[in-house]
Amino acid sequence: MSITPVPDRSAHTVNTIVDLEQGAAAGAVAGFAAAAVMNGFQSLVTPLFRPQSGDGPAATEQAAERVALVLSGRGLAEGDRRAAGTAVHYLVGTATGALYGAWAERRPGVTRWQGLGFGLVCATLIDQIAVPLAGLARPPWRYTLRTHLYGYASHLVFGLVTEQVRKLLRDRIARRRPAATAGQAIGRQAPDDRAMAIDDVCVPLLLGLAGGQRTFTPPAAITIAAASSGLGLEGTPLALLNSRWTGLLFGAAAAGEYVMDKQPGIPARIAPAGLAGRAVGGALSGAAAARPGKAWLAAGVGAAGAIAGAYVSYRVRMTLARALGRDRPVAFAEDALAMVGTALVATYASARQKQREQADTLVRHGGTAAA
């Protein structure tokens, strides 16, 4: 009797997530490097192209000025504006590189022409369309042909360097992946030390760090994941987290925390009571997301991450609030970081559990067939 292998969709989902993350990371590094090369290229060819300058500061400096006005209500001094404009340039390069790297994982065809097509798209969408529409530059038809050639040449260099660095980084990552074994013949992934490290340490650590910012957000996300798709908690002391009512309770507590966090007179998160609650939440979330037999390790990592996250996030928030002169923008940014980050980690943990269950099922069926 033979068993027809069932496609492991959970494994495919996890592999896709990992590939997208690695592609985005490689693209981000490549975009940052390409932004630096683009700056050097522009310095060299400016005398040749003699691009037409705008009516005021560079678009990146104007963008930085607008952000400062929105966040703090104050403009930037000239020296600060130049530094902030440079930061915007590198931030845009890094962000576009990350998007390109992630998209290249799903659609390898975008890497044709060694990144030159990517550079052309960036020049058209950013320089020719987005920047003028945002009021950071004059309409394209009000610039000379030399200026347009200068912009397109600069972005061609940006695209070319981005692709070469991205490809180099992805090749290095691919060479470090473990080779397939016979266990994969029935749809089961080979043991992957990197994936185990993510499951046993990184997942509870990230949940704990998020819990250091918002106590109830990680338990709410993990409970929702357990109730909707399961985290293998049946028959364990944490089986209560599979209940939708538990998820509703934690979700309401998380929503209330977001509101109370903005109110004056709330005790600091690094107070003993606040730290204790965050440690418990981090331990609970880490244990629920752990692999079988690793709950205690994950609970400890989650608790430690929550305490560390509380101290770090508190210092960062106080520093940024003083710099901006306002606390609420920082608080809302912290809300978004905690929610999005926790949702991504919970989704990953749920997908990994499905993958393990599928692999166990295939192994049992394979053993039965062999018998």
H/E order of the elements? HHHHHHHHHHH
Query: What fraction of the residues are assigned to beta strands by DSSP?
Result: under 5%
Number of spatially distinct domains = 2
> Number of helical segments?
11
- Report the principal-axis shape: globular
Instruction: Give Rg in angstroms.
Output: 25 Å
Q: Termini, distance in Å? A: 9 Å
Which sheet architecture does the biggest sheet show? none
Structural class computed from helices and strand pairing = mainly alpha
Average pLDDT level: 80
Unreliable spans are: 179-193
Keywords: Membrane, Plasmid, Transmembrane, Transmembrane helix
Pfam families: DUF1440
InterPro entries: DUF1440
Transmembrane segments: 295-314
Quick overview of this protein structure:
This protein is an all-alpha fold. Helices cover 74% and strands 0% of the residues. The chain is built from eleven helices and no strands.
Would you spell out the secondary-structure blueprint of this structure?
Blueprint lengths: L8 H41 L9 H14 L5 H29 L9 H18 L11 H32 L16 H21 L3 H13 L14 H17 L11 H17 L6 H30 L3 H43 L1
Helix pairs in contact: 1-3, 1-5, 1-11, 2-3, 4-5, 6-9, 6-10, 6-11, 7-8, 7-9, 7-11, 9-10
Report on the structure:
The chain crosses the membrane at residues 295-314. Pfam families: DUF1440 (PF07274). Keywords: Membrane, Plasmid, Transmembrane, Transmembrane helix. With 371 residues, this protein is an all-alpha fold. It folds into 2 domains: 9-176, no CATH class; 189-370. 74% of the residues lie in helices and 0% in strands. It has helices at residues 9-49, 59-72, 78-106, 116-133, 145-176, 193-213, 217-229, 244-260, 272-288, 295-324, 328-370. Helix 1 runs antiparallel to helix 5 (145-176). Mean pLDDT is 80; it is low at 179-193.
